[in-house]
Amino acid sequence: MTTTRHAIHPSHFKTLDTKSLREEFLLDKLFTTDAINHVYTHYDRLIVSGAAPETKAVTLETIDALKANFFLERRELGIINVGPKASVTVDGQSFTLENKEALYVSRGTKSVVFQPTAGARFYINSSPAHREYPTRKISLADADTITIGSPETSNHRTIRKLLVNSVLETCQLQMGLTELHQGSVWNTMPPHTHDRRMEAYFYFNIPQGQAVCHFIGEPNETRHIWIKNNEAVLSPPWSVHSGAGTSNYAFIWGMAGENLDYGDMDVVQPNELL
């Protein structure tokens, strides 16, 4: 199944009620057993997808929006395993991914098959690409990993940069995951915007009965969206993106745009938010 999300202007954003905010920015139906669901966005043409091959293999097929002979004819792809150990076959080569490991798939790849495993969950981002870079698996040991924040400010967290230019070359796609330490709830605090690229957050490992309140909007016009486990949210280039959970949790960040500098952020201090 493929759905489309159009870009929203900041002036339009100010008029949206809770229902409209969720319809425009929340991606809440990513996983269907033995299928791939896609959300084609008009934010830097990022595609956000979820694959759940539980009882049979699932193949990445092209979609009408691409007008392409195959899905990766003009695109690159990032996959992060958010389920049990499972494998992906890329043009006949098998890659086994442990939980939280990543796979970068090159532009020009014709066949991507997600192999069946009970409980399998693959989170996927794809963006347009201008050239081919090698397909490569990234383990947690390969990741560029940092721990920042503190228990005193409730934002002690470990950031694992998986598909970023300090680890491997990509055209414009960047992906990684952040894990909140026990007792910490705030992510991306202080928050920021980056007008050179958009971002999508996928929240997972949220305990049953808990949730994350995700903040979105211009720094002087913020709103919130409540997120449940295995749901994602879009963040336009003009919007802050931050969240606070009722428990610790993990999330995957994916970015697309013209700047591959991970540190390209226009930071907003907490006392400047409205």
From TrEMBL:
<feature type="binding site">
    <location>
        <position position="199"/>
    </location>
    <ligand>
        <name>Zn(2+)</name>
    </ligand>
</feature>
<dbReference type="GO" id="GO:0042840">
    <property type="term" value="P:D-glucuronate catabolic process"/>
</dbReference>
<dbReference type="Pfam" id="PF04962">
    <property type="entry name" value="KduI"/>
</dbReference>
<keyword id="KW-0862">Zinc</keyword>
<feature type="binding site">
    <location>
        <position position="194"/>
    </location>
    <ligand>
        <name>Zn(2+)</name>
    </ligand>
</feature>
<dbReference type="InterPro" id="IPR014710">
    <property type="entry name" value="RmlC-like_jellyroll"/>
</dbReference>
<protein>
    <recommendedName>
        <fullName>4-deoxy-L-threo-5-hexosulose-uronate ketol-isomerase</fullName>
        <ecNumber>5.3.1.17</ecNumber>
    </recommendedName>
</protein>
<dbReference type="InterPro" id="IPR027449">
    <property type="entry name" value="KduI_N"/>
</dbReference>
<feature type="binding site">
    <location>
        <position position="192"/>
    </location>
    <ligand>
        <name>Zn(2+)</name>
    </ligand>
</feature>
<dbReference type="GO" id="GO:0008697">
    <property type="term" value="F:4-deoxy-L-threo-5-hexosulose-uronate ketol-isomerase activity"/>
</dbReference>
<feature type="binding site">
    <location>
        <position position="241"/>
    </location>
    <ligand>
        <name>Zn(2+)</name>
    </ligand>
</feature>
<dbReference type="GO" id="GO:0045490">
    <property type="term" value="P:pectin catabolic process"/>
</dbReference>
<dbReference type="GO" id="GO:0008270">
    <property type="term" value="F:zinc ion binding"/>
</dbReference>
<dbReference type="InterPro" id="IPR007045">
    <property type="entry name" value="KduI"/>
</dbReference>
<dbReference type="GO" id="GO:0019698">
    <property type="term" value="P:D-galacturonate catabolic process"/>
</dbReference>
<keyword id="KW-0413">Isomerase</keyword>
<comment type="function">
    <text>Catalyzes the isomerization of 5-dehydro-4-deoxy-D-glucuronate to 3-deoxy-D-glycero-2,5-hexodiulosonate.</text>
</comment>
<dbReference type="InterPro" id="IPR021120">
    <property type="entry name" value="KduI/IolB_isomerase"/>
</dbReference>
<dbReference type="InterPro" id="IPR011051">
    <property type="entry name" value="RmlC_Cupin_sf"/>
</dbReference>
<comment type="pathway">
    <text>Glycan metabolism; pectin degradation; 2-dehydro-3-deoxy-D-gluconate from pectin: step 4/5.</text>
</comment>
<keyword id="KW-0479">Metal-binding</keyword>
<comment type="similarity">
    <text>Belongs to the KduI family.</text>
</comment>
